[in-house]
User: Fold this.
Amino acid sequence: MWIYLYRGVLERCVECSDKGIYLAAELGVPVVLYPSAKALALIKLGRYDAAWASLQEEIVDNEHRMGNAMQHFGTGVYFLEIMAYEKASEAFEYVIEQARLLKRPWLRSWAYNKSAETLIRTGQLDQLKLDKIVQELPLGIPACIDFRYGPQLGIRTENEIYTGAGPLKFACNTITPLEDIFIFCDANRYPHLPIILFGVIKQV
Assistant:
């Protein structure tokens, strides 16, 4: 289901999540993470009522802290999409801390990404906050900061990304405005990842 969500095959993600929920119920095991994955796909589909209902089905007790963290992440994305930015920010801050405690660097990276997007949309992402986010990103985990709302807020990626800090063979002039930036680190730990500090995904 996660690969379908990542690739944007959203209806298939919902279908797989529903099958996982059904199978877990048949086996009598807790239905963890499936409702949150389904909710994230439904949010992207614009089906907000169904997404919210799915988030309420997640198991969030003390024995399933990952389910609790993923529910809060989905809740943050939900609030971000309906422009309830303060609630979204609170949810992502909670996820960042829970992901740290659970030792889930990929989830912490997701939450930092969405936290940055929240700051961009509200015009609150300044250089100091961006630097702090980049410094806190887990090593070796790809992270994306979405700058698509930047131009109208006076935020330009050419002012935020310092290519001179990377390996010499990747040094270049200031990059042009981008829609997405991916940051990769720690090639020894993740040798299959490109040894780069940023990658252009889409030109504005």
Q: What stands out?
A: Residues 14 and 38 are 5 Å apart (CA to CA). The two ends are 30 Å apart (CA to CA). The longest strand covers residues 143-146. The longest helix spans residues 10-27.
